[in-house]
């Protein structure tokens, strides 16, 4: 299993996923409420959504052989090798504003995105 669990901005060429402080705090909060400190946030990209690709979020306690693990403030975010191709250089953030609160992906590979921010075109 390739493990880039150094800083969340550890470089592996251009294949990096940055985790913001805000996202790390929110993931830590959610994991605490799940009651399983072994959990990691799994971020995936799959075909679908209104723009061609969509982001997926789930908790997972296992990293697979083709996974890359990024760590920030003790919180681990895991993504598979294929998803990392589409996420390279992205930042996972958690934003709270008057419209609501949500995880956001700031993806430099996206050529277009939908209004809800959950899907994109590459």
Automatic annotation (TrEMBL):
Protein name (database record): Core domain-containing protein
GO cellular component: iron-sulfur cluster assembly complex
Pfam family, any one: Fe-S_biosyn
PANTHER family hit by this protein: IRON-SULFUR CLUSTER ASSEMBLY 2 HOMOLOG, MITOCHONDRIAL
Coiled-coil segments on the chain, per record: none
Listed GO biological process terms: iron-sulfur cluster assembly
InterPro entries: ATAP, ATAP_core_dom, FeS_cluster_insertion_CS, HesB-like_dom_sf
NCBIfam families the UniProt entry points to: iron-sulfur cluster assembly accessory protein, PRK13623.1
MF GO annotations: 2 iron, 2 sulfur cluster binding; 4 iron, 4 sulfur cluster binding; iron ion binding
Segments forming domain Core: 17-118
Keywords tagged on the record: Iron, Metal-binding
């Amino acid at each position: 299993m390739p493990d880039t669990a150094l800083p969340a901005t550890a470089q592996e060429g251009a294949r990096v996923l940055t985790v913001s402080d805000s996202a790390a705090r929110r993931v830590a909060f959610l994991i605490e409420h799940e009651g399983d400190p072994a959990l990691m946030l799994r971020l995936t990209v799959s075909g679908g959504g209104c723009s061609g690709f969509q982001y997926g979020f789930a908790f997972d306690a296992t990293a697979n052989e083709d996974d890359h693990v990024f760590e920030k403030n003790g919180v681990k975010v895991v993504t598979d090798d294929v998803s990392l191709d589409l996420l390279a250089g992205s930042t996972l953030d958690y934003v709270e504003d008057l419209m609501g609160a949500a995880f956001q992906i700031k993806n430099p590979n996206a050529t277009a995105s939908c209004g809800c921010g959950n899907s994109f075109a590459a």
